[in-house]
Write a structure and sequence with these properties.
The complex is a heterotrimer of chains A (832), B (386) and C (227). With 832 residues, chain A is α+β, with helices and mostly antiparallel strands. The chains are: A alpha+beta (832), B mainly beta (386), C alpha/beta (227). Chain A: This is ABC transporter permease.
């Protein structure tokens, strides 16, 4: 058996290119897949740690007027029987500039087991509670403190704010977080008797105590939920890359089998059983698979390391989720990566094994059967493609019936079905096109030959072309979506951020600041905002009455000369002007998320909880609110203050033309001792927003380009694999008097033409994909829909890319053909 | 003295479930045998003073206020209840932290339980305080008396103190107390709202309040108020009943309670029909030659205590029941020949497991004459270390 | 039609240059036929390749239809093959992507010299009528070689070069194919240079030469006597 295996493997010694191609496919597929999975696993680990932390999953209490809570309040509420626990939160700057979150807790009153689990992973609670106290810290936070893991336990790193209590490692904690006793935190943060907030176990309090606001944990969406769509997106892209990589593998395996059919027959004739042979081939697959997959995983981890800081930054800025910038991989990750790559390989190789199992010893009828086999294959592809398309249709019909915000997975399923169906239908379509063109060029022998020959190559090229189609469509779809998103988002930013400065004074200063500003000559208009939380109790619409019991945010804006013309509205009851008039008179706007989620239309009436009991509002319009994940109701600031006792939030400052910005800023800071972050420049907000946006899609773009590169590799690999065979096909033509230059040209034209055809098919498919992304995936993931933008530039780029990819891939075999001396062609010809 | 478990709890909790303590091996049950260090030491030479000694003694390592009661509702159906506040010093007096906000040197834990038939509801709470701070989540003050953690509290019943009859003086804020504690749970909540009236004097155990706990002289300050008449309301699983009955309050503080070898105890407090009260305990493993160390007090209806020497008490388990996965002796033979007592003490309901941070058994018992089977009294039994 | 003047051809091998053809002189008149015999490795195929302009001599001159092959560039040599020559190979070398009729017409069309009547005639004569829509691999070996012959003759080439055209066929089929080949060459008016190692195959041709170690010799006695 060992001899037989060695014999099988000897093929790769003669054809190292095939081996390289196989391993390359596995490597690329494995690397992209495991890279993305590494990112996902690492991020999920961070979420899990964050969710295990006390500050998430708990209801919180704060003063309605924004005054800080104190220890006094805590004791008072505890003595009144309320199960509240004090939480002190603040940030400290690490020596390397990283912001570290300090959380001070009281382990005795903190609800739930998570508290103790996180607080007493090791050592004694006494040490946690008494000087010198302890700092619980996750190992991946240590680098920020400049401490290595071995020296960490017991170390007391010095920060600007003072020495940290001795470190105790607690891997369960989220990255960048220091947990310590509230007494220690109060000293470090110099917060005196003050608290950040009181927390309780979720849903324990029925209502907030007098003067306090209760924020339910349910309204604080956990990072895991928020980022789910992001990770699903990544996973989908990685899966795409995996599939495309496996196309290469499949092509290489098929070729290796084809060329070894004689050898296999000989081995059978020499007494190796059919089953044994299949076993050997499977063993060979596994051997190659393990090598390729391991290489893939190693590179994947490297890729993840490179991408992770970007991903972490994106998730951090987009969702406020803390994700470790160093990889943190659970053991199952490694097996998972190996498993998926090997599983994919076996799937790709199953066809080969099946064929080997059915191998006839005498090899009779094989040569004659291929054409019928090819037609059977085309028929099979058409049927399968039709089937998958039908599944896609069913999914689509189902999604349409789903409430908005649901069906994210089904949405991805739909897109997968769309891609797969298109890929499967591609070879039959190309075959049809070729047959049709063949009719057209009957008079041109070389053209006719080129088309017929292309049809003959189709079985070998089909997979690579399918890969190219998928990659091109995905690329076009993604870039259309990102481009459209970008346009919409930038417009929206311009519309929403109308003031030059945004000021966030302390609540007790709010009124004073506002009146001071109103007197300043530099100020053209003030746009104070307020914020409150409420529960949506009832919806009264023409369809009837519903009771959603949904927590919503209430925002107050100031409709004025600046805001009204620019604030975007999606739909109104009676036109823009009327909507703004009603708004000023006390009617509400709701954001698109809430409207889609609750199926609201202008004219519907909402009843919300309010300090006075309940308040009923009529919806005057719906406005877009990109990037938000929550339902929001918008009211005029004075109305919100009066009816919902909303806390002041910020003041937008519109300056007069040519106003002295620096003077105003300085005067403001001097007069009110504002913190450095209280005054925000609108330009800065825009810059940061755009930066966040760009980062969000960096990864998506990078992955789609990588996928395209993989598809190009697949094509190149397929072409190289059959280059020898091709030359054998071309030699007689050359002998018949077709000059080599023309042969090379025809070759390039064949591939370029085919690729262009694929590119042309990718254009509608990519647009459909973009539509699916903005109209299905986006709605399901974020709750808002994007307008579909078509970018001719992107389409042109897609076509160019397709042609370029094909020509690049064809260039190497063509160059070889060009360089091959005629005699060598003949030698090959003779060497059958 | 059930209280050790208190400490037990605290220390176990502190020790992260007893995985490691600085001294290596846990000393005694739940670390109660730890050496006193710079803490104040209980000894026979100190005289107790009231009402001052009703308050907390932060210089001692551990302390508790421990109330049990045998009650009946309007239909004569028996109920039991427990309310306990434990204090544990986090640091020796010479190492107290600066009184910065939130800094603490004292740790508080409270247990409450209501039992009726096979129902047994238990809750516990924790808090911290600094002995230099006057407003805290938990604490005990002497005048007027108040012991609290959150909204659970045992405090002087000031409104009615004028009408108090009996031996307590009109100015004794300890003579009439109000006990309030409620806890929400998935069964509809439980708790109580009770008035406690002292119908007898405070009883000092051992040597004028110094109670020896081991043959080598370890001990604690220990006094009781066993003469509470109790009236009020008890809520169980959301259902409130009017109740009345008798209660027993134990006060104990110490810095080293147990001998290092003692691993648990069995403690009885009985209200006998004759009007006598009996407190008796054994510490398993702390006696001469490693035997059990026994002690107790025989209390006359007027409150006159007679200390019982180790060999004056007989305690023999007669039968066990399986409770919470452990074999718990729920039937005992309790003999005090000097008082002419030969009792079989039995827990009618064995399911009285206190499933708290440090678990133990605490429940109502009925005492019958060993020969005649005649009812002799009721009381409470606490067993730890099983 | 075809002339070799003092043609030398050597190939580089790891053991040094290998002289394949040495001072070969040869002449074939239009319409004439010549059999070239020799052992394996005697240089027969090389000579044929030089005649087809598939390869160039190291020295000497190969003249095809009055043009010296060495003076032609690649495209012109290709054109020469397309328009003047027909090639029949031992391995047939049909184009698998084209069906029978398109294979037959391929070279004629490439040379823009297709005459449908002649093609139809060839199909008829070659016994391929009715098989137009088949693909090469669906034909028997004899049919495939006949198709290859048809493809070479379809443009009515001035010179047909055949390399062991019956080498892959069984004896009976070989006989039939050979007979057909000679008939059709005559009908087409082409000259024929055929490489073979079989006396029986060489016999019907006008002349016969033997290549031995790269030198052209008159036929041996046996061959002469057969003639």
């Amino acid at each position: 058996m060992l001899t037989a295996l060695a014999t099988l493997l000897s093929h790769y010694k003669r054809h190292p290119g095939q081996l390289a191609m196989l391993l390359l496919g596995l490597w690329v597929a494995g690397a992209l897949w495991s890279g993305v999975q590494a990112i996902n696993a690492s991020a999920r680990d961070s979420y899990a740690r964050a969710e295990a932390l006390f500050s998430t999953g708990l209801d919180r209490l704060e003063y309605r007027d924004g005054e800080p809570l104190t220890r006094e309040d805590f004791v008072r509420l505890r003595r009144a029987g309320l199960p509240v626990s004090p939480l002190l939160e603040g940030t400290l700057e690490a020596p390397d500039g990283t912001e570290l979150r300090v959380i001070g807790i009281d382990p005795f009153t903190l609800p739930g087991d998570s508290a103790f689990a996180a607080a007493s992973s090791q050592g004694e609670l006494t040490d946690f509670l008494t000087p010198p106290w302890q700092t619980r810290i996750a190992p991946d936070t240590l680098p920020a403190l400049g401490v290595n893991a071995r020296e960490a336990p017991g170390a007391e790193p010095r920060l600007a704010a003072g020495r940290l209590p001795p470190l105790v490692l607690s891997p369960m904690l989220p990255p960048g977080t220091l947990v310590m006793d509230i007494a220690a935190a109060a000293v470090l943060l110099d917060s005196g008797e003050q608290l950040s907030r009181l927390v309780t176990a979720p849903e324990v309090l029925e209502r907030a105590p007098e003067g306090l606001v209760l924020t339910r944990a349910a309204t604080l969406v956990s990072p895991g939920q928020l980022t789910e769509s992001f990770h699903l997106n990544l996973t989908a892209m990685a899966l795409l890359a995996l599939v495309v990589g496996l196309f290469i593998v499949q092509a290489a395996l098929g070729l290796a089998l084809e060329q070894r059919l004689g050898m296999l027959r000989t081995l059978r004739a020499l007494g190796v059983s059919g089953r044994g042979l299949v076993g050997l081939l499977a063993l060979e697959l596994v051997l190659l698979g393990v090598i390729g997959a391991l290489a893939g995983i190693v590179s994947g981890v490297w890729l993840a390391r490179v991408l992770l800081p970007d991903v972490a930054a994106t998730l951090g800025s987009l969702y406020g989720a803390d994700v470790a910038v160093t990889l943190n991989l659970p053991w199952h990750y490694w097996f998972g990566g190996l498993g998926v790559t090997l599983g994919g390989l076996l799937l790709a190789g199953s066809g080969v094994l099946w064929r080997a199992a059915r191998l006839s010893v005498l090899g009779l009828g094989q040569a004659q059967a291929w054409r019928a086999g090819f037609y059977r294959q085309l028929r099979g592809m058409s049927l399968a493609g039709g089937g998958v398309a039908a599944v896609g249709l069913v999914l689509w019909a189902w999604i349409v019936r789903q409430p908005p915000g649901e069906g994210l997975l089904a949405g991805f399923g739909l897109i997968a079905a769309l891609l797969l169906a298109s890929a499967l239908l591609l070879p039959p379509t190309i075959a049809l096109i070729l047959a049709g063109l063949g009719q057209l060029v009957r008079r041109r022998p070389l053209g006719q030959w080129a088309l017929a020959d292309l049809q003959l190559q189709l079985p070998q090229l089909a997979l690579a072309m399918m890969a190219l189609l998928i990659a091109l469509s995905a690329n076009l779809g993604v870039s259309s979506m990102v481009g459209g998103f970008r346009l919409t988002f930038l417009d929206w930013l311009d519309q929403r951020l109308v003031a030059d400065y945004y000021l966030r004074p302390a609540p007790e200063q709010f009124d004073a600041v506002q009146s001071w500003l109103a007197e300043r000559p530099e100020v053209a208009e003030l746009l104070p905002t307020r914020h409150a939380e409420a529960t949506l109790l009832e919806i009264e619409s023409p369809d009837g009455l519903r009771v959603p019991q949904l927590p919503v945010g209430l925002y107050g804006i100031t409709p004025g000369e600046m805001l009204i013309p620019s604030w975007p509205l999606l739909s109104t009851q009676a036109g823009r002007d009327a909507a703004w008039q009603s708004f000023a008179a006390g009617e509400a706007f709701v954001n698109e998320q809430l409207a889609i989620d609750q199926n609201l239309a202008p004219g519907d009436r909402l009843t919300l909880t309010a300090p006075s009991g309940r308040e009923t509002l009529t919806i005057a319009a719906i406005y877009p609110d990109y990037g938000n994940t929550r339902g929001e109701v918008l009211l005029a600031t004075p109305q919100l203050a009066e009816r919902f006792a909303a806390t002041p939030s910020s003041i937008g400052i519109v300056l007069t033309l040519g106003a002295d910005e620096v003077g105003l800023r300085d005067a403001l800071r001097q007069r009110f001792e504002l913190g450095s972050d209280a005054l925000v420049d609108q330009r800065e907000v825009k810059r940061v927003s755009v930066e966040i946006f760009e980062r969000t899609f960096t990864i998506t773009r990078a992955l789609s380009v990588l996928t395209l590169a993989v598809a190009a590799l697949a094509l190149l690999a397929s072409l190289l694999a059959q280059a020898r065979e091709r030359r054998r096909q071309l030699a007689p033509l050359w002998a018949l008097g077709v000059p080599r230059a023309r042969l090379v040209t025809v070759q390039l034209a064949q591939l370029g033409g085919m690729a262009l055809a694929v590119g042309a098919l990718a254009v509608p498919l990519g647009s459909l994909l973009a539509l699916g992304l903005v109209a299905v995936i986006n709605v399901a993931a974020f709750g808002w829909r994007l307008p579909l933008h078509v970018f001719p530039g992107d389409i042109g780029l897609t076509l160019t890319t397709a042609g370029a990819v094909a020509l690049l891939a064809a260039a190497l075999p063509a160059a070889r053909l060009w360089r091959t001396p005629p005699r060598a062609l003949l030698a090959e010809e003779g060497g059958t | 003295m059930r209280p050790w478990l208190a400490v037990a709890l605290l220390l176990l909790t502190l020790a992260g479930c007893g995985e490691e303590t600085p001294s290596g091996e846990p000393a005694g049950f739940a670390g109660l045998g730890e050496a006193a260090g710079s803490f104040a030491q209980a000894g026979p030479d100190i005289t107790l003073r009231f009402p001052e000694d009703h308050a907390a003694h932060p210089d001692y390592r551990i302390e508790w206020w421990y109330l049990t009661a045998n009650l009946e509702d309007e239909h004569g159906e028996p109920l039991g209840l427990q309310w306990t506040l434990f204090r544990q010093a986090l640091t020796p007096p010479d190492q107290q932290p600066e009184p910065t906000p939130w800094a603490s040197d004292q740790l508080w834990m409270a247990h409450m339980a209501v039992s009726r038939g096979d129902t047994h509801r238990v809750a516990e709470r924790f808090a911290r305080s600094h002995s230099a701070s006057d407003s805290s989540q938990a604490g005990v003050v002497a005048e007027p008396f108040a012991a609290w953690i959150d909204h659970w509290q045992l405090a002087s019943h000031e409104e009615t103190s004028d009408e108090t009859s009996g031996e307590a003086s009109k100015t004794d804020t300890f003579a009439e107390l109000q006990l309030t504690a409620h806890q929400d749970d998935e069964h509809g909540g439980f708790g109580y709202d009770l008035t406690l009236t002292a119908e007898g004097p405070l009883v000092l155990h051992g040597e004028a309040g110094f109670s020896q706990k081991a043959a080598d002289g370890q001990g604690s300050f220990y006094y009781s108020q066993p003469f509470w008449r109790i009236e009020g309301e008890v809520t169980l699983d959301g259902e409130t009943r009017m109740v009345s009955g008798r209660g027993w309050l134990d006060r104990e503080w110490s810095s080293q309670l147990l001998d290092e070898r003692q691993q648990g105890w069995d403690w009885f407090s009985l209200h006998l029909e004759s009007g006598h009260k009996l407190m008796a305990f054994q510490l398993r493993g702390g006696g001469e030659d490693g035997g059990n160390y026994r002690s107790g007090t025989w209390i006359s209806p007027e409150g006159e205590p007679t200390a019982l020497a180790p060999d004056a008490i007989g305690m023999t388990p007669l039968g066990t029941r399986r409770v919470a996965g452990r074999e718990i002796p729920n039937r005992w033979r309790l003999e005090v020949p000097g008082a002419g007592l030969d009792l079989v003490v039995e827990a009618p309901h064995a399911e009285r497991w206190m499933d708290t941070s440090v678990p133990y058994w605490e429940g109502e018992v009925v005492a019958r004459d060993a020969d005649s089977g005649e009812d002799k009294g009721i009381g409470y039994l606490e067993m730890t270390g099983y | 039609m075809l002339e070799f003047n003092q043609v030398h051809k050597a190939y580089a091998t790891p053991q040094g240059p290998l002289e394949v053809l040495t001072a070969v002189d040869l002449e074939l008149r239009p319409g004439g036929s010549l059999a070239l015999m020799g052992e394996s490795g005697s240089g027969k195929s090389t000579l044929l390749h030089l005649a087809a302009g598939l390869d160039l001599p190291d020295s000497g001159e190969v003249v095809v239809a009055g043009r010296s092959v060495s003076t032609l560039d690649e495209p012109d040599r290709a054109r020469l093959r397309r328009e003047t020559l027909g090639l029949v190979f031992q391995q047939f070398h049909l184009v698998p992507s084209l069906n029978v009729i398109d294979n037959l017409r391929l070279q004629a069309r490439l040379a823009k010299r297709e005459t449908p009547e002649w093609s139809a005639h060839l199909m008829e004569r070659l016994g391929l009528a009715g098989l137009e829509r088949r693909y090469p691999e669906q034909l028997s070996g004899g049919q495939q070689q006949r198709l290859a012959i048809g493809r070479a003759l379809a443009p009515r080439p001035a010179l047909l070069l055949a390399d062991e055209p019956t080498g892959n066929l069984d004896e009976t089929t070989a006989g039939e194919v050979l007979e057909l080949l000679l008939d059709l060459v005559r009908e087409a008016g082409s000259a024929l240079l055929m490489v073979t190692h079989s006396l029986r195959v060489a016999a019907p041709l006008d002349r016969c030469l033997r290549l031995t170690h790269g030198r052209l010799e008159p036929p041996s006695g046996a061959e002469a006597s057969h003639r």
